[in-house]
Every structure is written in structure tokens, then in C-alpha cells.
Amino acid sequence: MKSLISVRDIGKKEVEKILKKASSFKEGKEERLEGDIVLLFLEPSTRTRISFEKACRTLGLETYTVLGESSSLAKGESFFDTLKTFEALGFRGVIFRVPFILFPYEDTANALKLSLINAGDSTHQHPTQGLTDLFTLREAYGSLKGLKVLYVGDITHSRVFRSGAALFGLFGAEVSVSGPKTMIPRDIHVFGVKEVFDNVDEGIEWADVVIWLRLQKERQKENLIPSERSYFEQFGLTKERHKKLKGFFMHPGPVNRDIDIDSSLLYSEKSLIQEQVRNGLFIRMAVISWCFTDK
Ligand code: CP
Description:
Layout: H1 12-26, E1 36-41, H2 47-58, E2 62-67, H3 79-88, E3 93-98, H4 106-110, E4 115-121, H5 127-141, E5 148-152, H6 159-170, E6 174-178, E7 193-197, H7 200-206, E8 209-212, H8 228-235, H9 239-244, E9 249-250, H10 273-293
Parallel strand pairs: 1-2, 1-3, 3-4, 5-6, 5-8, 6-7, 8-9
Helix pairs in contact: 1-10, 2-10, 5-6, 5-10
Bound molecules: phosphoric acid mono(formamide)ester (CP).
Phosphoric acid mono(formamide)ester (CP) binds at residues 45-48, 120, 129, 252-254.
């Protein structure tokens, strides 16, 4: 029984095992597991929750969903006591999305006899999105060695960036960022970032692939940009920038249309957005299988 809370806890060998499992699921391999899983989602989600649910069911696992304000967390019960309750009820695993950073977490994970799978904890980690993006890039480019990846947008609030950058670095990619100064963390270089481009057009010229991120308005405590219009003009994927892209672009979703990306470009021939969603299912099946069966 394993858990996956942060990509920083797994080395290249374990990541390779997960990617290999995901490939085999994509090719149609079947696997049957037994047990019950809780999907505890305290923040909104469409693709992560539904793909985890579909992944569980495809693997033969029963799912029980707990959403937002519907649990006793709303009455002040702690996250740990909530997990202990699921443990006492005989659940095999808990897949959680929470509005707080789960760190440190070793004591929590070690004190429980169930697998914990992080589906996004505030701005900290989103391991299955990072793995999905790694898998998608590998399919598109073959290898990440020397691949120049640019993240654009609200880097400060992005758990997708924190998970993806660590994984891409492990596989030899160069990662740079671009965004308003107010959305670049002061400690950006601890994430192995090569360069911070104030001018996104210079970043696009440098990059082989660009990952636009969502402006996370719900997490911004103050106005970090003069207006959404000016943000789009300065950093968004416009038609002019789309023409200049050397390769593909990605976005983890959900997209703020005409703020992150021009509406008409979302599903263009350079977009990997639908492939990211498709691959998310196989990666989540692989992570669940890895947690439950890998020694
Ligand atoms: N990428 C992602 O986490 O999307 P959802 O919020 O829809 O799950």
C-alpha cells in the first residue's frame, strides 16, 4: 500500500513504472482491483474528479464521493480525524482535493492504514496533473531531454507548475516561466527554473512547447493585474502568438476563455488540451494501481 501526495517523493524509477502502466492501460490492458475508495473533494473539479471516478470504476473499485460542505469537516472535524473515520469504515484509499496545503504530511500518511492520493492541495501539489502532462509531452515529443518548456501565467498559485516542473526536470527538460511580476514567486529558482521571461514573446521564441496556466482569481487576495484585457494582451495566447509557436501548447484546464487563451484557438491543431484530458484517465488508473499493487 502506497500513497502519492507529492511528486517530490517519487524518483525517476517510480515515475517510469507509473508511465508504463498508463501506456498499457491506454493500449487496452485490463486490471481488476478490489475495495472501496473515497473521493473527498472540498474544492471544485470536473476533469480530475470524474477521471478518478472513472479510473476507479474501470479497475473494479467502488467509489463514494464526499463534496464541499457536505461532510463533518464543515462542523470543525479535522482532516486527520476525517481520514481516520474512512479508515475505520474499511476504505482502501482516499483521493482528496483540499483548499489547504498538506505539508508536512508524513506523520498523517504513516498513521493511516489506507492509501492517500493527492488530487490537488491548494497551491502545493497536483501530482496526477504533473504526471499527465509529462506523459502527454513524451507522447508528443518522444523524449524530454533538452526540451524547452515554458509555463505562462499565474505561477504563484499553480500546483500544476510545482508538480510539472519537478517531473520535467527529472527527465532532462529545461523549464522557464513568464507572467506578470505579481504572479511569479520570489523563490522561483528553487523549482529548477532556467529563466523568467518578463516578455512572453521572448519566452515563446525560446520554447519548444508552452503551457498556459489559469488565472486563479479565487486564490488572489488582491488585484494582481490592471485588467483581464491587459493581461490577455500581455501574456495570453493570442492569434499572433499562436502563429509564432514552434510546437504544441497545453493548458491543464479549466480555461478562462479570452483571458488565458483566445477562444478560437482552444482546440487548434497545435493544442494538446484534449489529449491531456484523455491521458488523465490512464495516468489516474496507473497511480491507483501503483499505490495498491506495487511492492
Ligand atoms: N486540471 C484540473 O485539475 O481540472 P479540474 O479542476 O477540472 O479537476
